[in-house]
Amino acid sequence: MDKTTCIVVGAGPAGSACALSLARKGIDTVLLERGRTPGEKKVSSFVLLMTELRRLIPDWEKDLPVERNIIRTDQAIFNGTDIKMITSYNYDKLKNPVYFSAFRRKFDEWFAKKAKEAGAELITGMTVTDLIMDNGRVVGVKIDDEELYADIVVGADGYHTKVGEKAGLVTEWDPARARLAVKEVLDLPPEVINERFQLSDGQGCDMGIIPYHFGELSIRSSTLYTNKDSISLAVFAHLGELKEKNIKLHDELEKFKEHPFIHKFIKGATLREYQAHIIPHGGRVNPENLYGDGVLLCGEAGGTTDTASGMGVPTCMTAGLMAAETIALAVKKKDFSADTLKNYLKFLDSTSILDMIYESKKTSDYWVDKGKLERPDCMAAIADSYNQYWNADYMSKDYHPLFLNLYLRVGKFFAPKLIRMIVTPILKGYSFYEKTVEKIKRKIRRRFYEWKKQYDN
Ligand SMILES: Cc1cc2nc3c(=O)[nH]c(=O)nc-3n(C[C@H](O)[C@H](O)[C@H](O)COP(=O)(O)OP(=O)(O)OC[C@H]3O[C@@H](n4cnc5c(N)ncnc54)[C@H](O)[C@@H]3O)c2cc1C
User: Fold this and answer.
1) Which of 271-275, 377-381, 385-389, 441-445 has the highest mean pLDDT?
2) Of 214, 230, 328, 372, which sits with the fewest C-beta atoms within 10 Å of its C-beta?
3) Pocket flag, ligand 1, residue 15 (CB < 6 Å)
């Protein structure tokens, strides 16, 4: 009987992060992937936020396969006749990249290779078809007729999770809680891209487009960003609304492409790839259902995608890392029961992932209840998320403001004089800096909402 300590199903960002971390801890890990290579099955291009990855692979600059360093970000509020735009160039990002455009096929392969180099056994071309159960406990996986046993199985197998379903953890499939995305990658010569987006070689642009008064859909968003020699254009809409109104999203994409604002960026381009995919919309998996006897779910299988920003890769990686921490604890205790594995929630709670799951659930509940978002709320939510997500760091739970405020308001009076003399000015300086940044952000947001109001009228 083939047995290992841990089987991770799925070599996406969550699975590879988990396997990498487990291997670094010296825990026997098999990483199973159905694609012939990791990333083969994925929606081709994406924007890669660097915060988590930078920490995990400090020498990433050596070989991380990226397309362009995004130094220009645009937010376009869009209807049929009028477009308002905020454009921001940040040259600081040249030295200190915050995010890149990249291709999943190359990235997933690179990332899984890092897990393999760390000692995980990567097996590709293997689709897990079922789980092996013993008295309600997961003890392994089936790959058609083959069986592989483990102390613990991690479901990192994405939205349509077989592990989650077979373990009875994921039962809900509600179109109202999912978004559909269609995406095209359109080939254009690099110099044409540079000219149209006013960029130099290697620099990229990411444009968030928020359309309304355009077509029949009440909630939708779109993104357009630059790769080395191609442009990615994606449109997102609620599956429930598409179904209800019988709208085909690829028709919407075609309409969108014909609009002069979009057309001017993509004219003359040739289609390289077209793909459609579902994105979970929060509240799909209750945190209490992220673990069971001998099993954990992470990444999109567990619904750990940031609903507001759509950023899945960094949050899924963080969840994978926290799954690895939980498994290390279980290995130490030699206990893989749900009772030990529930510590997963504690590990997740040490990051911002649990808060994010609850927030996503709230947003999703709201959308499910209302059926749709009223425009101003929708705009406010999106504008807020855009303002914030460049700085998102899902690995850290930001307690500083609370600690800092408590100290400055109360603590300093009780601290010994020497400590007070040193610590108080430092914290006051830090607090002043934080407040100034917040003030600037608020100002930008206010301006944005004024534009929106003007636009609504
Ligand atoms: C159109 C679109 C655009 C997006 N853009 C971005 C973006 O720009 N930036 C961003 O951060 N996020 C983006 N996301 C979200 C992001 O893609 C996901 O959140 C992320 O891929 C989830 O990672 P994961 O590892 O949990 O799952 P996945 O990436 O889905 O990986 C799951 C892996 O498991 C494998 N697998 C599945 N079933 C089995 C099985 N039975 N046996 C073996 N292997 C299996 C799959 O082949 C796959 O490799 C986008 C999503 C979509 C749909």
Assistant:
1) 271-275
2) 372
3) yes
The reply to whether ligand 1 has any atom less than 6 angstroms from the CB of 300 is: yes
Report CA(317)–ligand 1 centroid distance (Å).
11
Q: Which atom of ligand 1 is nearest to the CA of 39?
A: 49
Burial of 304 (0-12, 13-18, 19+ CB in 10 A): buried
Tokens of residue 224, six digits: 């357009």
97 lines ligand 1 (CB under 6 A): no
Which pLDDT tens digit goes with each residue over 187-216?
999 999 999 999 999 999 999 887 766 677
Secondary structure (3-state) at 198: coil
- Distance of CA 17 from the midpoint of ligand 1 (Å): 13
Query: CB neighbours of 170 closer than 8 A, spacing ≥ 6?
Result: 161, 164, 284, 285, 289, 297, 301
Q: What's the Cα-to-Cα distance from 391 to each of 228, 259, 315, rounded to whole Å?
A: 24, 32, 13
Residue nearest to atom 15 of ligand 1 (CA): 312
pLDDT tens per residue across span 216-242: 776 677 899 999 999 999 998 888 888
Looking at the chain, how many residues does it have? 457
